[in-house]
Specification:
The complex is a heterohexamer, with two copies of chain A, two copies of chain C and two copies of chain E. By secondary structure, chain A is an all-alpha fold. Chain A contains four helices and no strands. The longest helix of chain A is centred in the C-terminal third of the chain and has 29 residues. The N and C termini of chain A lie far apart (42 Å). Chain C contains 17 helices and seven strands. In chain C, helix 4 packs parallel to helix 8, helix 5 runs antiparallel to helix 8 and helix 11 crosses helix 17. The chains are: A mainly alpha, C alpha/beta, E alpha/beta. At the B-D interface, helix 1, helix 2, helix 3 and helix 4 of B face helix 1, helix 2, helix 3, helix 4 and helix 8 of D. Bound molecules: NADP nicotinamide-adenine-dinucleotide phosphate (NAP) (2 copies) and nicotinamide-adenine-dinucleotide (2 copies). The site of one nicotinamide-adenine-dinucleotide has 29 residues of chain E, from helix 6 and helix 7.
Amino acid sequence: MSELVITGIVVFVLAAFVGFEVISKVPPTLHTPLMSGANAISGITIVGAITTAGLGSGTVAAVLGFLAITAATINVVGGFLVTDRMLSMFRNRPKAKARDD
Amino acid sequence: MSELVITGIVVFVLAAFVGFEVISKVPPTLHTPLMSGANAISGITIVGAITTAGLGSGTVAAVLGFLAITAATINVVGGFLVTDRMLSMFRNRPKAKARDD
Amino acid sequence: MIELLYLAAAVMFIIGLKRLGHPRTARSGNTIASLGMLVAVVVTLVDTEIVTWATVIAGLVVGGSIGAGVARRVQMTSMPELVAAFNGSGGAASALVALAEMIRIGPDTVAVEAGIATALSVGIGTVTLSGSFIAFGKLQGLLPGRPIGFEGTNALNGAIAVGAVAIAGWALATGSIGAWWLLAGVTLVLGVLAVLPIGGADMPVVISLLNSFSGLAAAATGFVIANSALIIGGALVGAAGLILTFQMSEAMNRSLANVLFSKFGGVAAGPAGDADAVNRATTEDVAITLAYANSVIVVPGYGMAVAQAQYALRDVADALEARGVKVTYAIHPVAGRMPGHMNVLLAEADIPYDQLLDLEQSNPKFHQTDVVIVVGANDVVNPSARDDATSPIYGMPILDVDHSKTVVVIKRSLSPGFAGIDNPLFYLDNTLMLFADAKEALESLTRSVVDA
Amino acid sequence: MIELLYLAAAVMFIIGLKRLGHPRTARSGNTIASLGMLVAVVVTLVDTEIVTWATVIAGLVVGGSIGAGVARRVQMTSMPELVAAFNGSGGAASALVALAEMIRIGPDTVAVEAGIATALSVGIGTVTLSGSFIAFGKLQGLLPGRPIGFEGTNALNGAIAVGAVAIAGWALATGSIGAWWLLAGVTLVLGVLAVLPIGGADMPVVISLLNSFSGLAAAATGFVIANSALIIGGALVGAAGLILTFQMSEAMNRSLANVLFSKFGGVAAGPAGDADAVNRATTEDVAITLAYANSVIVVPGYGMAVAQAQYALRDVADALEARGVKVTYAIHPVAGRMPGHMNVLLAEADIPYDQLLDLEQSNPKFHQTDVVIVVGANDVVNPSARDDATSPIYGMPILDVDHSKTVVVIKRSLSPGFAGIDNPLFYLDNTLMLFADAKEALESLTRSVVDA
Amino acid sequence: MRIGILNDVTQLQRRVTLTPDAVAKLTGDGWDVVIESGAGSGAGFADEAYRQVGAKVSSRQDSLAADVVLLLSPPDPATVGDLSPDAVVVGFLDPLGSPEVAQTLADAGVSAFSLEQIPRTTVAQSMDALSSQATAGGYAAVLVAADESTRFFPMLITAAGTMPPAKLLILGVGVAGLQAIATARRLGAVVSAYDIRPETREQVESLGATFIAAPTQQFQAGGYARAVSDETQAEQQQALADAVAQSDVVITTAMVPGRVAPRLITDAMIRQMKPGAVIVDMAAGSGGNVEHSVPDRRVEIDGVVILGPSDLASRVAGDASRMLAKNITSFLALLFSTEDGFDFENEIVAGSCVAYGGRLFDRAAGAGMEDADE
Amino acid sequence: MRIGILNDVTQLQRRVTLTPDAVAKLTGDGWDVVIESGAGSGAGFADEAYRQVGAKVSSRQDSLAADVVLLLSPPDPATVGDLSPDAVVVGFLDPLGSPEVAQTLADAGVSAFSLEQIPRTTVAQSMDALSSQATAGGYAAVLVAADESTRFFPMLITAAGTMPPAKLLILGVGVAGLQAIATARRLGAVVSAYDIRPETREQVESLGATFIAAPTQQFQAGGYARAVSDETQAEQQQALADAVAQSDVVITTAMVPGRVAPRLITDAMIRQMKPGAVIVDMAAGSGGNVEHSVPDRRVEIDGVVILGPSDLASRVAGDASRMLAKNITSFLALLFSTEDGFDFENEIVAGSCVAYGGRLFDRAAGAGMEDADE
Ligand SMILES: NC(=O)c1ccc[n+]([C@@H]2O[C@H](COP(=O)([O-])OP(=O)(O)OC[C@H]3O[C@@H](n4cnc5c(N)ncnc54)[C@H](OP(=O)(O)O)[C@@H]3O)[C@@H](O)[C@H]2O)c1
Ligand SMILES: NC(=O)c1ccc[n+]([C@@H]2O[C@H](COP(=O)([O-])OP(=O)(O)OC[C@H]3O[C@@H](n4cnc5c(N)ncnc54)[C@H](OP(=O)(O)O)[C@@H]3O)[C@@H](O)[C@H]2O)c1
Ligand SMILES: NC(=O)c1ccc[n+]([C@@H]2O[C@H](COP(=O)([O-])OP(=O)(O)OC[C@H]3O[C@@H](n4cnc5c(N)ncnc54)[C@H](O)[C@@H]3O)[C@@H](O)[C@H]2O)c1
Ligand SMILES: NC(=O)c1ccc[n+]([C@@H]2O[C@H](COP(=O)([O-])OP(=O)(O)OC[C@H]3O[C@@H](n4cnc5c(N)ncnc54)[C@H](O)[C@@H]3O)[C@@H](O)[C@H]2O)c1
C-alpha cells in the first residue's frame, strides 16, 4: 500500500475517533440542527470538486466537475444557513446564570 | 517543511484532539490511576528506544540506547502493573445493576 | 502550507461540531464550522492551478444561490426534508468528484487503492443521493409516508449490494468506464429500495444515517484525490453522524436495526393510533423548553398524586429556580380526588405556600407565561369545559393553561381522567405531550434541566 | 503494514484511556492499553533490523524487572510518588532516544525539523525527569514537603528556560554535540528548580502535568525518528494529561497557575491549620465510595436540620437505592436540638419509618456496614463519649460509626457541636471529611452518584 | 329578594349558613339579608360583622319571613309554620333520613331544595356541601382521635426512649375518609385504609397510605356504595379484623345514602384491640359503623375508647361555615339564574328539589312538573 | 429493695411513674415493685398488666412504705408522714416553687431527689424528665389549639373556596416550644416563633419555621433564660404585638425556673387579635405568659379564646408515662450504681438531691455532707 494511503488511513481513523468523542449526549432538540451542521461539513467535498473541475480535462470531466461543484455548494451554503436559522431559537436568555462549557 | 513532518503534525493534532475529548469529567478517585495509566502509555517511547538501540552505531549511542530501553521499560511495565493494582478496588459489585457505557 | 491550512479548517470543524452539541454554544459552533469551510475553499481556490475558472465560478454561483435561496425561504417545519435534500447533493458531489477524477486519470491507469476509494465514493455517494431524495419525498408528502416494499425487500437489497461490489470489482479489473457508470446506476437504485420500506416517522433517523454516509463518501473521495481535508472532514462527519443516528433511534426507544429493517421483518412497533396527532416530546425537549423559559407555572393533578411525584416535582422546580426561572403552582379547586388533595402533597414536599395560586389568581397569569407544565392533570385543564357547551363538564371553571405560550403535559397515555372525556388540549399546536409516569419523568427532567 | 499495526496500538491506547476515566471500566481500560503497548513493542522488535539484540534484550529485562518489582512491592499509600518515578523514567527515555538518534545521524547532518524535534524531546524529557524525581523526593519525605525557593524563583526559571532555547538554537546552528549535552544539563536543572518551590500537597497536580510533558516528549521523539506510534501515543497522553491536570487542580479549587507559581508570588492559599490532619474528600470521592458500597447508614444531626437538607438527603438515598445500595438511617436519641428533631424532618421528606433505626438497633450494625454518612452530626458520634473518661460527655451513649469500614462526615468545618468539644472521629484514618453545607453537598452528591 | 339566616347554634352545632364575606357578596348582587342575632357566634362571626356588610340583624321570626330561608338541619313543624307560603327553603333537609320533613314543606307550599341531593357531578362541585362539610369532618376526626389517644401520632426517637408511630386505620374512603388519611399522615401516623369501592385503592395510595386489600370487592356505579350482601360483609369483616386489632386508632366513615350505615366493627373485634386504642365513628348518627358507638358519647369497652361525635364539622366551625357559605351562594346563583321560575331542565336544580308547588318533587317528572306549574 | 408507685390519677393528671415495661426491666434487675391499684389506669395500663410483670398491686400505704417511692408531684405532709424514715423519694418535688415540701422531706429524714433539678447536661439527657414531659406538652398544646381553633391549620384549595393556612406563633422556644413548632408545621400551619435566647433562632429555622427578630436580645448562660429587665420586656412586647395580632393561634411556653413566668401577652395585645383566635398558655400554672389566662380554664376575651391547660402531658398519658418511666429507671440506675451510699461527687446525683440526712441538701457542700454522713 502506498505511503499516502496509509497516512490517509491513520488520519481517517484518528479523525473518526474525534468525531465519535466530540458528540456527547445531545439533547433531542439539537438533533436536527446538529445533523444539519454536520451535513454542511460533509460538503467539504467541495474542495475536491474545485480541484477536479479546476484542472479541467475533457468535456465529461468538466460537466461532472461543474455538477459536483454546484451540488457541493448547495450542500455547504444551504446547510450552514439553514442550521443557523434553526439555532436562532437558542439565543441566550440574559437572565440565566452564565455557565459556559 | 517535509511531507513527513506535515503528516506528523496533522496526526499529532488529531491525536491531541482525541486525547482532549476522550477524558470527560473523571471522578477524583480515578485521578491517580488515570494519571498512572496515561503515564504508562507515554512509555511508547520504548518503540523509539528499541529502534535506535537496535540499529546500533557507536558506543555512546549504544549506551544511550540501552539506558533508554531500560528507562522506557520501567515506565511501561511498572506503570501498567501499578495502575492495575490501584484499580483492583473497583471490582464490580455483582449486585449493582449492570450499566455499561 | 496548504496542508496546515486544511488542518486549521479541520480543527474548526471539530470545534464547531463539539459546540453544536450544546444548546448554549450550538449557534457559534455552526459559525465556526462554516468559517472552517471558507478557509478550506479559499485555500483550494488559491492553491489549485485552476484552468477552467468559468466552470468553477459558475458552479459556485449556481450552487450558492440555490442553497441560500432555499435555506432562507423554507418553512421551519420542513427542516428535516431540507436537510435531506442538501445531504443528497453532498453525496452526489462526492460521487461526481470521484467519477470525474477517474475519468481524468483514465479508468485503466488508476491505482488499485484509488480504484477502491472511487468505488466506495461512488457507491456510498449515490446511495446517499437517492436515499436522501426518497426521504425528502416521504417527508414532503410527494411519496406516501407508509412503508413501501414487500416481504423480501431486505434480501433483495442485500443481493443488489453484493451485485454492486461485483460490478466494482469488474470495473477495477477491466478499467471499463461503462462499468463505473453501471455501478453508479445500481447503487442509485439501492438507495431508493433501501429507504422506501421505512416509515415516514422514522425518516429523521434515516437522514441522519445518510448524513453519516455522505461524510464517508467525502472521506473516500479524499482518498481518491489524496486530500487530507476531505479525509478528516469526511471521517468526522461519518463518525459524528453515526453517533447521532444512534442517539436519535435511542430517543425513539428503538434500535437502529429496528428502524432500518423492521417494517417488513414483522417486528414493526410504531406509535399508537391517535397518539400520532399529538406533539410527542422527550424529557430533553421538555428540559430545554423549561430551562430557557422566564416563567413556568406547574399544574398538578391526580396523576401527580398517583405517582407520588411531589418530591420529584419539587426537585425540578429547585433546578429551574437555580437557573433563574420563576416557578409557581396553579392549584385547581378540584384537582385530585379530595378537597385539598394537592395541598397535602405539595406541603409534604415543603413547597412554599406563597408559590401556590388558586384558580382566580392563576387564570389571569397564563397568557404571560412561557411554559405551563401539567403534571398528571386532565379534567381541570380541559378547554371543552369552557368552550364546548355539549361537554358533560361544560361550566366547570378550568385553568386556562392553553393561553400560555407552551403547554407541557406529563401523563402516561391519552387516557381520560375522572370525567372520562377526551381533552382537546393535548392536540393543540403549542402542547407537548410527555408520555411517562409523572415521577419517573420528573426525576429525569431534573437531571436534564441541570445539564441543559 | 507496520504503520497499520501501530495504528491498531494507538486505537487500543485511545480505547484504554477512555475506559480509564470511568470506575466501572477503568481496569479493563488499563489492560487494553497495555495490550496496545505489547502490539507496538512486538511489531517494532519484528520490524526493526536489530543488530544489537544483546543491548535490546538486556534493556528490556533490566527495565522490566525493576518496573515489575517496584510496582508489586510498593505500599498502596505511596502510589503517587511511584507514578512520579515511573514518569521520570519515561521522560528520560524520550530524551535519551532523541539524543542517541542525534548522535547516530550525526549532529551536523540532521535536518532542521528533526533538530527542533530533538531539542523539544531533550528539553521536555529532562525537565520531566528531574521534576518527577523532585516530586518523588517530596512525597517520599526525602526532601522537605514545604515550598523551597525564594522571591525570584519564577523569574530565574523563566531566564533558564530562555537560556535553554538559546542553547538549542546554538546546537542546531553549530551542530556541536557538546551543545546538546549542555542543553540536557540546563533543562535538568530547570526541572529541579521549577518543582522545588511547590508544596508537597500540590505534588499530585505537578506529577500529572509532568505526565502530560512526558507524552509531549515522546511525541517529539516520534518526530525525530519519524514514528507515528510515538506521535500518536505521545499526543494522546500530552492532551489527556493536560485535561486531567486541570481537573485535578479544579478538584482542589485552585487554578493550575496558582498551584505552579503561587508559593512565592504571595497568593499562597493552602488549606487551613488543623484541617491538614484530616482526610478531605470531594463530592466525587464520596459519591464513588457510596455508589460502590453494599450498605450505607445515614446518621443525621443538627446540621442537617440547620441546612434543611432532609429532601436532598432523601434524593441521595433514592439514587443509591436505585443502584442497589441498602440505605438505612441511624437516629441518635439526642440528635438535633429537641426530642424527635430528626423524626420530624425525615418524616417531612417521607423517609419510610422502617428504615429508621434507633441507637440500640443501629450500634450492632456498624461493624458490618461499608459506609456511614454523618450529615451534620457531631456530639452524637463523638467516640470520646465512649472512650475518654475525662471528656465532659463521657458516658453518653453514642452511635459507634467508627466501627464501620468508612465514615463520611459532611459538615462545614471542624467546629464543635453543642457540647463544644473536639471530635476524634474526624481525624481517623477511615474517616473522610466533606466540608460543605449539608444541603449543597447532598445535592451535588445525588448528581455524582447517578453518574458514578 | 331577601335571604334569611337562622341562629342554629347549640353546643354541638356551631356553624352558620352564610359568613359576613358571603353576605357582602350577596348584598353586592342586590340581595337583602336578614340574620337572626347570634347566628355566627359559634363560628367566630359577631352580629356586628354582619351588620357592617349590610345585613339586618334581627329576630328569628324576621329571618323565617324572608323569601329565601337557609337551614342547617331539617326544620321542625313550628319553623315550617313560620315560613311565608312562597318561600324558597335551601339547606340540609335530610329527605332520605327524615322524609316526613319534605312532606311538611310540600304541604306548606314552599319550594324546598336539599343540599344533600345536589348531584355529585364535576360541574356541581362548588355547591357540594356534603363534600365541604365532610372535608371539615375528616380533618376534625383525626384531631379528636389524636386528642383522645394516649400515644403520639408521629414517631419520636428521644433520650427517653423510642416512641413508634401510631397506627391509624380509616374505614370508608369517601371525602371524609380521604381527608382523615391526609391529616393523619401529616401528623406522622402510619395510615392504612379500606373501602368497598375498588377505585379507592388508587386514591388511598395517592395520599401515601396503604390500602387493605379484602378478598371480595365489588364495584358500584354512580360513586356511591350500595349496601353489600351479607356474605361479602362477613368476608370483609374477617379481613379487617386483623388490621383493626393492630391499630391504635380507627376512624370509620362508611355510609350508604338513605340507609343505615354498615356495621364494620363488632364487639368481638373491639375486644381484640389494645387497651388505650381509640375508635372514632363518624357514622354514629346514621346507625354507626361500630358496635356500642353512641352519638356524642364516649364509651369505653375493655380499655378501648369509642367516640361517636356528630359535631365534627363544627369543630372547625369558621372554615366549615366559609365553605358552606360558598356552596350556598353558588347554589343560589344557579337557582336564581333564570328569570321566570326554576330551571328544572338543569340536573342540579331538579336533583336537589324536594318540594315544589305544594307537592313532593318527582325528579323523573321534573320538567313535566314545571309545565304543570305554568 | 422495693419500689413504690402511687396512684395519682385525677381528671387532669393521668400519667404514672412506671409503665409495665419499665417494671419488668426493674424486676429483672432484682427490684421488688409495689403499685397502688389503678395507678396506670389514666395512661392505659391495667393493674393486671403490672401484675403480669411481677409487681404487687396493693394499697397506697404499701407503696408509701417502700424503700424507694416515686412521686408525680410534691407530696402533702400526710403522704410524707407515711414514708419510712430511710426511704428514698424520687419525683417532681418542685423545690423552687414549693420549698416548704423539701423542708418537710428533710425533717422526715428521707433522702429526696427532685427530677426537676437534674442538670440539663448532655450526659443526663436520658433522665431529663422535664424535657420528656415538655415534649409531650408541646405536642399536646398544638392538638388542643387545633381543636379549639375554628380554622383549618393546613391550606386547602377546594371547590368551596380557598382556606389559607393558619398562622401560628410560638413564644418561648424551649423543649415544649420546639415540639409545638414541629407539630404545627406537620399539620401545615405557617409557624413563626420567638425566644429571648438568641441561639433559638437557628433552632427555629432548623424546623422550617420563621424566627421573629426582636430589637433587643440578650444571651443567657446555662441554657436557661433569666428574668429580663423591664426595659427589654417593654421593647420586646412592642416587637411581638404585630406578630400576635396577625396570628390565628398563639402558644406560649416561656418560663424562668424558680420565678414567675414572664408576661408576654397583655390585655391590649389580646384585643388586637382576630375574633376566633386561640391562645394556649403553657405557663398558666407558673403565673402565666398571658394576661387573663387561668389554669385549666377557658377564658374568652373579645372573641379570643385563652386556654391555660395544666394537663398537657397527660393528654398523651401513655407515651408521656413511657418516657417518664425511662427517665426514672435511668436515674435509679445511676443513683444506686454505687455500693455504699450515694455518689455526691456525681453532678447529677448532687444536683438533683434536695434533702439528705435530715437536712436540706446544700449542693455546694455536696461532697462534704457525704463525709459528714459517714
Ligand atoms: N378534588 C376533589 O374533591 C374531587 C373529588 C372527586 C372527583 N374529582 C374529580 O377528579 C378530577 C380531577 O382532575 P385532575 O385533572 O386532577 O385529574 P384527572 O382529570 O382525573 O386526570 C388525572 C390524569 O393523571 C394521569 N395519571 C394517572 N396516573 C399517573 C401517573 N402515575 N403518572 C402520570 N400521570 C398519571 C391520568 O392519565 P394517564 O392514565 O394517561 O396517565 C389522568 O388522565 C376532576 O374531574 C374532578 O371533578 C375531584
Ligand atoms: N435532641 C435534644 O433533645 C437536644 C436538646 C438540647 C441539646 N442537645 C444536644 O445537641 C447535640 C446534638 O448532637 P448532633 O450531633 O445532632 O449535633 P451537634 O453535635 O450540635 O453538631 C452539629 C454539627 O452540625 C454542623 N452543621 C451546622 N450547620 C450545618 C450545615 N448547614 N451544614 C452542614 N453541617 C452543619 C456543625 O458543624 P459545622 O459548623 O462545622 O458545620 C455541628 O458540628 C448533643 O450534644 C445533644 O446533647 C440535644
Ligand atoms: N363528582 C365529583 O366531583 C365528586 C365530588 C364529591 C364526591 N364525589 C364522590 O362521591 C362519592 C361519595 O363520597 P362521600 O364521602 O359522600 O361518601 P359517603 O359519605 O356516602 O360514604 C363514605 C364512604 O364509605 C364507603 N362505604 C360504604 N359502605 C362501605 C362498607 N361496607 N365498607 C367500607 N366502606 C364503605 C363508601 O364507598 C364511601 O367511600 C365518592 O366516590 C366521591 O369521590 C364525587
Ligand atoms: N443539654 C441538653 O442536652 C439539654 C436537654 C434539654 C434541654 N436543654 C436546654 O435547656 C433549656 C431550657 O429548656 P426548657 O424547655 O426546659 O425551658 P423552660 O421551660 O424553662 O423555658 C421555655 C423557654 O422560654 C424561654 N423564655 C424565658 N423567658 C422568656 C421571655 N421573656 N421571652 C421569650 N422567651 C422566654 C426560655 O428561653 C426557654 O427557651 C433549653 O436551652 C434547652 O435546649 C438542654
